[in-house]
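User: Structure please.
Assistant: Input sequence and predicted structure:
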Amino acid sequence: MDGLFAYDGSGESRDPSSAGTLAGNTHDSAPLAVRMRPRDLDELVGQQHLLAPGAPLRRLVEGDQSMALLLWGPPGTGKTTIAAIVSGQTNRHFVEVSAVSAGVKEVRASIDTARNRLVKTGQETVLFVDEVHRFSKAQQDALLPGVENRWVTLVAATTENPFFSVISPLLSRSLLLTLEPLTDDDVRGVIERALTDPRGLDSQVTLEEDALDHLVRLAGGDARRSLTYLEAAAGAALSQGLDTVDLTTTETAVDRAAVRYDRQGDQHYDVTSAFIKSIRGSDADAALHYLARMVEAGEDPRFIARRLVVLASEDIGLADPTALTTAVAAAQAVQLIGMPEGRLNLAQATIALALAPKSNAVIKGIDAASADVRAGKIGSVPPHLRDAHYGGSKRLGHGQGYQYSHDSPFGIAEQQYAPDVVLDAEYYRPTNLGAEGALKERWERIRRLIRGR
């Protein structure tokens, strides 16, 4: 759960306080990630696109406006925090419903209790539903009366695409806010603040730079994860009577060895280059090794997916026409489900592309065509191919003599398509590898028919 309270089945959160002050969750034994939860919008890290003056989130909190929010973003980007801020800064009661354990009855009970509180005391309620995509259609339907009548200020959070996982009536009644993964600098700031803040570690320990870098890499843009790991590392150091957390202590505490990989440095480019060249060389084992190094080091999975999509056309092309489809599907899957599960999609695509027959005919073809264009070989479009759909085009001779391909034998007409200056150019030169071998024979026959040879 990405939440502060668990549902107790009574329509109320376990927190006994009103106004959503989150009392009872800032005690010394509370997790560091909970103690360091931002108390207002000014402490919220990242998401600057949501914090600008006049932005919906600002209006909701500072203008105390009632609206339903649907927060979509990866774990640890502040979805629960935003719900807590909305509750605390607007003096609304905070109630959380578990999307894992609550049924329709519990959802309706929460809304009924919120409505009664509104009638009796005038106090509004923030109803926070984490992982709303886990709710069934009936459970999501049960939220609609509370939203429509504004008995509750609904804040629903999801890590999955809401256009697939949230019912249309609820989606149309909610303001969708997309949360972006935190940057490395954002996560670094979260860790550094927790080290000195009285709510956090209160300067009990210092963190060596390489240990800090390791925690940032492991966090992968997840602030909560970074604080969980920091708490474990600091606890390990303090248990040994140390006031400095070094890399060795950090590696032991979080049971993850530091991967020497700088996303802005040589390792990034070297590992990426080796990854691509291993796939191009058809070594699936080596490709998986470099993929694992990138994933474990916290490389952006979208970057990896983009490289696979490029490789599918550059190094495989029509030798395996399904390669591009596989790579694009992996990229879309990573975008849809995120990490860590997305590594499976990346691994499947990596293996498939490594084992596919290879051809660079696509890139060689477009490069050759581009070279001619840059060299000034840009002739006039043959008159019979020009647009003949506007008034007066016929008088200019446009379209005259054009042969409709479907009226010709084999659906291929003998006529000139290229400008005179590149009439004999042969850009696409298929190989004999994989499926492209059959395409080569077909293309050679087609080329002869078109050019009357």
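Residues 1-24 have pLDDT under 50 and may be disordered.
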